[in-house]
Amino acid sequence: MPSITYSPEKAQKVKGRVIVVTGGAQGIGATTVTLLHTLGAHVVFGDIASGPGAALEDSLKATNPPNGGTVHFRHTDVTSYPDQLALFEEAFKIHGRVDAAISCAATVDDPTWFGNLTLDAVRNETASAGISKMVATNLVAPMILTHLALAFITASPSFPGASIGSNQGFTPSVTFTSSLAGLTPTPGMTIYSSTKHGLVGLTRSLPAVTPTRFNALCPGATDTAMLPDVVKDMWRGAGFRIQPPEVVARSIVQCVVDARLDRRVVVVAGGETWESEEELEKLWPAWLGEVNAKEVEDSGVFFGGPGKRIKLGRD
Ligand SMILES: NC(=O)c1ccc[n+]([C@@H]2O[C@H](COP(=O)([O-])OP(=O)(O)OC[C@H]3O[C@@H](n4cnc5c(N)ncnc54)[C@H](O)[C@@H]3O)[C@@H](O)[C@H]2O)c1
Asked: Where are the annotated coiled coils located (predicted)?
């Protein structure tokens, strides 16, 4: 499996770039905002959590990084199209361009949706509001983000000095934060897992007609507030690994700067990062049957897909 190694040298390519991040106030999003800012990017981030968002903005501004990074927070509910539009408009107004977008916002399941159901419970139609909100946050919002990012990236003037220095080879991108639960069965988190599978499907199916790259990052268990302490204790107690959010943030930045990564699924689990589509596609003939696999590949190209992947190999 092709491993993806974070390159601090390549990461310098974000310097001066304008990057929009949603769900950036806490956890993996906040760690990513911090790393990008340290590397000299202009980060414009949104989150529904205004207090932590404003506090992160203030604390990063106080650091005054030598690379010239800037940071700007705006209250954003990603389920609102006008909110996400306003976030992109703000980035464009302040910096005159958008170079990349990263979607981190998400919420987790109400595990009662599929369990111990009574007729009284299912006759209460308001109960569906919770899952609708979750699908809106975890799946529809990244689709809105993509729609907006493509327009704002396309409207951005070419980057000054793009062909010289460390910014050479930077290509615009959209990175989705999916999950290992977006690739594997996760019965305790059924709706969450379904939305995260949706992000993998979105990444695979986005057309290859734009110069913008799209990638889905699939983290395994990560030490953030999304995992309650009791779950973390049980998880560690069973001998499973929980990685720090910094590892995931570095993998997100690698997706932003690594021009080889396009419509890829990058897994980061137990502190290791690797691309999973290349190996999976080798199994298509066994999984789908020889003829179907060939037809899926050919018709994918017919409908604007990337066709056979270029082997990642060594960078
Ligand atoms: N922590 C893990 O183990 C883990 C594993 C796999 C994937 N992920 C994914 O990583 C991403 C970041 O998760 P995290 O672990 O940092 O969780 P987190 O709860 O610490 O952060 C999620 C952020 O999203 C924000 N958010 C939620 N709803 C929002 C909305 N409607 N509008 C705007 N912002 C909203 C929250 O306020 C929060 O700041 C998520 O997409 C999550 O699904 C996390």
From this structure: none
